[in-house]
Design goal:
The chain has one helix and two strands. By secondary structure, it is of the alpha+beta class. The protein has two domains: about 35 residues, no CATH class; about 40 residues, no CATH class. Strands 1-2 form a two-stranded antiparallel sheet.
Length: about 80
């Protein structure tokens, strides 16, 4: 319990000491907090997920809210099966 000295400074000082003590115990075990850019998106791939060829050489057919990908060489369908 903090002492009642007419202000919250004793309580705040005790809390600061407790946090610093806990930080001193945890940092050697867990390491420092991670810093840096969070949720960095990976670079956008321009390769077809089915055949690996560039997407620019593919046809995309859009109908009724669906997009159907047609590989340029015609050997792979959208389901990943041989045509």
């Amino acid at each position: 319990m903090p002492r009642n000295t007419g202000g919250d400074t004793v309580h705040a000082h005790g809390l600061t000491q407790a946090v610093e003590w806990l930080d001193g115990k945890l940092v050697p075990v867990l390491g420092p907090a991670p810093r840096g850019p969070y949720d960095v998106e990976p670079p956008h791939s321009t390769a077809c997920p089915l055949c690996g060829q560039p997407l620019a050489a593919h046809d995309a057919e859009k109908s009724e809210g669906h997009v159907f990908l047609r590989c340029s060489d015609g050997t792979v369908t959208e389901t990943g099966r041989a045509a």
